[in-house]
Design brief:
about 400 residues; globular
Length: about 400
């Protein structure tokens, strides 16, 4: 990609979500909208851009086949799933597959063929998106009013929606950006600032479990770093993390950010936890055929009513109801390999901490079964957050201007 197109992609990935699209009249998250509007504009631009680069011979098909096998596998498997859904008239899952899986694969192919110098300069916009989203989340929480969102979301306590719409999707994307920026930076005070902002943001979104995922990822990163860093740096990190813990504890105890933690003294009081248990109980109520090959929308609604489930709070259960357990397992493996490839390109030492954070946070909500742009954000971060000394020379042969 050239500089201008890369900037357009970065803006679409990091700033243009359902909140902004609804404001301009593009009702992306409206279940009654035309299928054209259910697909994010980024998908259309990705397809057109890649097609133009291929027919103009700026990107060679052989280069894609040789270097982007994971992305091609994700696209091919998604097409097979789309055909399966169409044959069995389960069209509700189509836009999710395009936005959440096919589009990230296309974006990754385009980023692979983009000069690394362009991507490195583009890293500033990732910091901008992170701090803008953090700032919006904090202001919304303090004001108890959504600034960008026009959608009514019912929760027992107010939860910020900031740039990325639904609070749980926000928490997932912020956790991913936060852990990558934490690992990317070498200066301890910047690491601690990023960690504090990430934890505060997810508390504003009311995503208690996300804070555990972030802390777990940071803990794994600390353990890995302790084998390569000097002892003095390790001790400073311990003191710094302890300070962040104390600050975080004070914030939870003394501000409204800790409402969802402090008000849930038992499982009986925690409706969100009860909803997750009900979601998992749906698997027990499914017939063997439904478990293996999925269900229609009518059957899914009937099962939710039977188990008393209002919202399926687990992406894998949503997948199973749509595709069946066999396709769902394959889909999980495809996404896991895709994420691992992106993270390894960013930093091999980040593989375990980043994967743990993303998968843990994703496991406690259904964002990976929605039109989330998590994987697009992940690809952009992993290709852009590369230190100049680590630029891979071999990629220069595949870059386009």
């Amino acid at each position: 990609m050239n500089k201008i197109l890369l900037l357009i992609f970065a803006i679409l990935i990091l700033f243009i979500d359902d909140n902004i699209l609804n404001i301009v009249g593009y009702h992306h998250n409206d279940p009654h909208a035309n299928i054209i509007f259910k697909i994010h504009p980024l998908a259309y631009i990705s397809v057109v851009s890649l097609f133009c680069y291929i027919i103009s011979f700026k990107i060679k098909v052989t280069s894609i086949v040789q270097n982007c096998k994971v992305e091609l596998s994700a696209i091919i498997f998604s097409i097979l799933l789309l055909m399966y859904l169409i044959v069995f008239n389960r069209l509700a899952g189509i836009s999710f597959l395009i936005d959440a899986i096919v589009t990230p694969a296309l974006v990754s192919i385009l980023l692979f063929h983009t000069p690394q110098t362009y991507l490195i300069r583009n890293s500033k916009i990732i910091y901008a998106a992170f701090f803008i989203n953090f700032g919006l989340a904090l202001v919304e929480k303090l004001l108890h009013r959504a600034i960008l969102s026009q959608e009514f979301l019912y929760f027992e306590e107010f939860r910020s929606t900031a740039l990325y719409g639904h609070p749980l999707n926000n928490a997932l994307i912020m956790s991913a950006i936060g852990i990558l920026l934490y690992i990317y930076n070498d200066k301890l005070y910047i690491k601690l600032l990023l960690l504090l902002c990430t934890v505060v943001a997810v508390l504003c979104f009311g995503a208690r479990g996300a804070s555990i995922g972030i802390i777990g990822g940071v803990g794994l990163s600390f353990i890995i770093d302790s084998f390569s860093k000097k002892f003095s740096y390790t001790m400073k990190s311990v003191l710094g993390l302890f300070l962040i813990f104390c600050v975080g504890y004070a914030i939870v105890i003394n501000t409204s950010l800790g409402d969802r933690i402090l008000k849930r003294s038992s499982f009986k009081d925690d409706k969100s936890a009860q909803e997750r248990v009900k979601t998992l109980s749906m698997l027990d109520k499914m017939t063997d055929s439904q478990l293996q090959w999925g269900m229609t929308e009518v059957e899914t609604t009937a099962l939710m009513n039977k188990t008393g489930t209002r919202t399926m709070e687990n992406y894998f259960v949503v997948w199973v109801t749509k595709f069946g357990v066999y396709f769902s397992i394959i889909l999980f493996i495809v996404l896991l390999i895709f994420m691992a490839k992106q993270i390894r390109h960013f930093n091999k030492a980040a593989l375990l901490p980043a994967l743990f954070t993303i998968l843990f946070v994703a496991s406690i909500n259904n964002s990976l079964a929605t039109n989330t742009r998590l994987l697009c954000v992940l690809s952009l971060c992993c290709y852009s957050l590369i230190k100049r000394k680590e630029v891979y020379v071999l990629r220069a042969d595949h870059s386009i201007n």
